[in-house]
Amino acid sequence: MNRRDAVSRVALLLGATVIGADFFLSGCKLSNKDEKKGASLSFTKDDIAYLDEIAETIIPTTDTPGAKAAKTGEFMTVMVKDAYDEKNQKAFLEGMTKIDEASEKKFKSGYMKISAEQRTELLKEIDAEMKEYMKSKKKDDAPHYFTLMKQLTMLGYFTSEIGMTKALRYDPVPGKFDGNYPYKKGDRAFAG
Amino acid sequence: MPDNVYDAIVVGSGISGGWAAKELAEKGLKVLMLERGNDIKHVKDYEQANKPDWEFPHRGNRTQQMIEDYPVLKRDYPLNEKNLHYWTNEKDCPYTEVKRFDWYRGYHVGGRSLMWGRQSYRWSDFDFGANAEDGHGTDWPIRYKDIAPWYDYVEKFAGISGNKDGLPQLPDGQFLPPMEMNVVEKHVAEGIKKHYNGKRLMTIGRVANLTAPLPGRTNCQYRNKCWLGCPFGAYFSTQSSTLPAAMATGNLTLHPFSLVTKILYDKDKKKATGVEVLNTETNLTIEYKAKVIFLCASAFNSTWVLFNSATDIWPGGLGSSSGELGHNVMDHHFRLGANGSVEGFDDKYYFGRRPNGIYIPRYQNLFGDKRDYVRGFGYQGGASRQGWSRNVAELSIGVDLKEMLSEPGNWSIGITAFGEILPYHDNKITLDKNKKDKWGLPVLAIDSELKENEHKMRKDMMNDALEMLTNAGVKDAKTFDSGYHMGMGIHEMGTARMGKDPKSSVLNGNNQVWDAKNVFVTDGAAMASAAAVNPSLTYMALTARAASFAVEELKKGNL
Q1: Which of A18, B10, B428, B521 is 20 to 30 A from B188 via CA?
Q2: What is the spatial distance between Cα B393 and Cα B32, in angstroms, rounded to a whole number?
Q3: Torsions phi, psi of B218, nearest 5?
Q4: Which residues of chain B have a CB within 8 Å of the CB of A19?
Q5: Contact call for residues A60 and B399 (beta carbons, < 8 A)
Q6: Pick from A84, A120, A156: CB nearest B398
Q7: What is the tens place of the pLDDT at every residue in B29-39?
Q8: pTM score > 0.90 for this model?
């Protein structure tokens, strides 16, 4: 990225409430010297498996592999540990518990035990709840945990090898520029 | 020749230092180039350049540790995982912010020529004449005709791609074929041209990326990973361009880890005799002697060296007799403009990641346009289809979300204004003797701010963007202002300005320090005003011109 890209990215972000906006700008907005770093956080294999199944429900396997195959759960833990400030870490960790609790409440069974259809149903409800929350959220309120999970899933998936080369079209060395390239609905986007 | 004696010493190895070394070495001088930081070898040391995104643990994003380690860099986009190692260690190299100043530095061979934005524009006589015209700052000692042949010269060697637009305020140059605007940029450009009867122009950026090969360098491969270092040598950097040429002469010696602490000055001869160097690894001090010294350490650091030199004669340092050393700090102010969406091009896309955007040259206060401030601004930007990070409000999770985000989104276009900052005497840098860097050296204190002229200009920078996009048919255009602080342009200029009079300038028209004619300062420090265009091409031209002059003067026995 260079200055112009950064500027246009920010410009783009400002143009709409982009889901990644908080994340991309978090270094500026959320950093706070007094907040502790999260290096001491640790995630278990079960945590990663659980996050993989949340990610897979957000970006499922279709004719291309989904978020679980792209190891998105593990990526989420790395980002929560290293890149999140304490406020976001707390929101994310609480969210992990809340999803399981919501599953117990709705289906009398933990998230890992319910079916793929039930997971989708549950996370769609949480997604709708998140959108309501974000509407009334004040600037300094913690983001909704599902915003964080969805952002990290999208980031983790679309920048993974699977996401970039299978869900998107990836060319490490394009070699030329064509500014009038044909496109038809259904053609995949080029990876950045 | 003894080991520590050279014909010329070049302090710094960035855009200006690289040019000074090449020109002086090619003219037969034995040259020593001193770089305070580590070496970075062309291609071999571009460790991240061929890594795909997924091999970066945080996919290029910043961590809390990085935020803690880089309290300045974190303020804007430069703090990132991919080229973190190219940015200066802020704990080792602190500075004092009397007022906020975002100073983004690169201390290594090549300097910021490795990470620069590569936009390359000529100044015109509107720029060189501006100080004389409106009375801000002092008159430039040169005009366009003095530098035009040197623009020709450096453009041919560096490789600048661009379109010849025939504008008096943005002179054409020796360009490689222009990059291409994409279909939506062309559409908006046509709309602007039509609405403003050709008085405003959107064109492709002029950029130091090759669109045709040069000796030893491949043309741009459209990866848009320039700031990691280019394995193809496709953009101008010290490493890809000037350093190999200088090395090929056999006349250049390059010493990394060599921080020049002062210029050694002979008060009887009124000349510099050499430099004192601190080895940043061993902490040992050594002196080198030379007939000519080129200070190209980046604007503020070149002045820092002058502050520390000849203080027994001038307490304020070499060049301070003018009263202007350290003064007239400038940058370009930006980070505001407008963006919107463009309809009707759903069947169009683009192939390749073009490391360049569009440019709208300055039109304010020119050709009858009159504003309530002086000088003006240009715009940079581009059109693209939205990527996977866009918000798709109506979509929740699952297959629909995945499929939609796997396709490109709507077309949008954004333009950001880059405006001129006037040279103000009280925007200044000084030595802060109470704060020391890792090597016990006093650091710089920076005290600068925008003033009324810039604040007035910023309103137009935003509103004109909205008006232009709307008039060109862009839908739902909106303004944005992400806020600007001095330094964010990474175009720090001034503090040792050129001028006509030793009483009001530090350097003469050939970049010689008035008080030491064999000391040349040819980086951003020399600038007497800032113009609205990106400055690096002008540093290249000024450096090549000054080097040629220095060699002639040496031959004549004048130095």
Answers
A1: A18
A2: 60
A3: -95, 150
A4: 389-391
A5: yes
A6: A120
A7: 999 999 999 99
A8: yes
- At B394 the pLDDT is 76
At residue A20, φ and ψ (nearest 5 deg) are: -85, 0
Asked if B44 has any chain A CB less than 8 Å from its own CB, the reply is: no
Collapsing DSSP to helix, strand or coil, B286 comes out as strand
**How far apart are the C-alpha atoms of B352 and A5, rounded to whole Å?**
15
Contact: B381, A177; criterion CB under 8 Å: no
Close Cβ partners of B465 (under 8 Å, ≥ 6 residues apart)? B336, B337, B338, B379, B415, B416, B417, B479
Nearest CA in chain A to B379: A4
The answer to whether residue B345 scores a pLDDT higher than 50 is yes
Region A28-52: mean pLDDT is 67
Residues of A in contact with B75 (CB under 8 A): 28
Q: What are the chain A neighbours of B478 within 8 Å (beta carbons)?
A: 14-15
Residue B218 corresponds to which tokens in the numbers above?
């491949």
> Which residues in chain B have Cβ-Cβ distances shorter than 8 Å to A150?
397
pLDDT digits (tens, 9 = 90+) for A89-119: 999 999 999 999 999 999 999 999 999 999 9
The total number of residues written for chain A in this structure:
192
Confirm whether the ipTM is greater than 0.95.
Answer: no
Q: Which residues contact B544 (CB under 8 A, 6 or more apart)?
A: B19, B23, B150, B153, B154
